[in-house]
């Protein structure tokens, strides 16, 4: 499957890069005063350049949206909040001024900063933000915990540095546990890839070396068996990867 899709993906990348390079080049055709500009010749190039830039912008947005927010990223943001609060800055101003370095985390925390900046109470803004995070299943659970701590710290009163510090410590411990589980599941992932790729490689080798295998594959029953085998192989690889990754969460 990967071998079949690789040429198509490579061709798409080459077309996009070529159009981008050509769009950055200066114009090479000059027109005399009595000559009409080559509108059709330049039009398709401009359209191709615009489409390539549109695809690039869409891919950038998708990359930011799909970027996973880990507990270590949230812990770094909470540490910044804690340091700012310990310097004597109010929690409201701390939330407004402290922007995470992680692009996905910055986008996810933007509604909280927007509400607080417009004058909403920190407890109410954090509670509403936590409700939105609960409705959005793509957002990690670590942000929901942060919203709860911010809401409780603001509503109860007292210093907010200690709860935020304990939250950051818990998030760092969660990140360490996830890293350990990822290291333990690496061997299982390698085994799943081997079990998925070896049958396809053996089939390609037999097709290249054995005439009998090629004759069988060219027949309708043989082609049907090979197609079913490849489909089951892809399904099995996806299933094994899903089991391993779900167990590591």
Keywords summarizing the entry:
mainly alpha; disordered N terminus
Write up what this structure looks like.
The protein has helices at 2-23, 39-66, 71-86, 91-97, 103-117, 122-135, 141-156, 161-209, 211-218, 220-247. The protein is mainly α and 249 residues long. It has a domain at 71-178. α7 (141-156) packs antiparallel against α8. The longest helix has 49 residues, at 161-209. The model is unreliable at 1-6, 26-33 and 37-42 (pLDDT under 50).
Shape call: elongated
Structural class: mainly alpha
Strand content: under 5%
Report the sheet with the most strands, covering strand number, pairing sense and barrel closure.
none
Euclidean distance between termini CA atoms = 28 Å
Helix-strand pattern = HHHHHHHHHH
Mean pLDDT, rounded to whole units?
Answer: 77
Protein name: Type II secretion system protein GspF domain-containing protein
Membrane topology: Multi-pass membrane protein
InterPro entries: T2SS_GspF_dom (IPR018076)
Keywords: Cell membrane, Membrane, Transmembrane, Transmembrane helix
Give a quick precis of the structure.
Helices cover 82% and strands 0% of the residues. With 249 residues, it is mostly helical.
What is the element layout, followed by pairings?
Blueprint: H1 2-23, H2 39-66, H3 71-86, H4 91-97, H5 103-117, H6 122-135, H7 141-156, H8 161-209, H9 211-218, H10 220-247
Helix pairs in contact: 1-2, 3-8, 4-5, 5-6, 6-7, 7-8, 8-9, 8-10
Membrane topology: Multi-pass membrane protein
Protein name: Type II secretion system protein GspF domain-containing protein
Subcellular location: Cell membrane
């Amino acid at each position: 499957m990967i071998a079949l899709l690789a040429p198509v993906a490579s061709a798409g990348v080459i077309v996009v890069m070529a159009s981008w390079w050509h769009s950055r080049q200066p114009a090479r055709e000059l027109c005399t005063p009595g000559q009409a500009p080559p509108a059709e010749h330049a039009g398709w190039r401009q359209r191709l350049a615009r489409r390539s830039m549109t695809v690039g912008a869409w891919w950038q947005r998708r990359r930011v949206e799909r970027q996973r927010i880990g507990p270590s990223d949230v812990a770094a943001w909470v540490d910044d909040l804690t340091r700012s609060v310990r310097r004597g800055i109010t929690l409201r101003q701390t939330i407004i001024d402290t922007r995470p370095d992680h692009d996905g985390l910055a986008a996810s925390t933007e509604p909280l900063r927007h509400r607080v900046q417009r004058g909403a109470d920190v407890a109410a803004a954090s509670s509403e933000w936590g409700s939105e995070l609960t409705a959005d299943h793509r957002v990690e659970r670590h942000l929901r915990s942060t919203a709860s701590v911010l809401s409780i710290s603001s509503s109860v009163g007292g210093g907010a540095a200690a709860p935020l510090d304990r939250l950051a410590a818990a998030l760092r411990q969660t990140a360490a546990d996830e890293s350990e589980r990822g290291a333990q599941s690496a061997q299982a992932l390698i085994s799943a890839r081997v079990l998925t790729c070896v049958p396809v490689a053996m089939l390609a080798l037999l097709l290249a070396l054995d005439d009998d295998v090629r004759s069988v594959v060219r027949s309708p029953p043989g082609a049907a068996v090979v197609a079913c085998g490849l489909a089951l192989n892809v399904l099995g690889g996806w299933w094994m990867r899903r089991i391993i990754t779900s167990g590591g969460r």
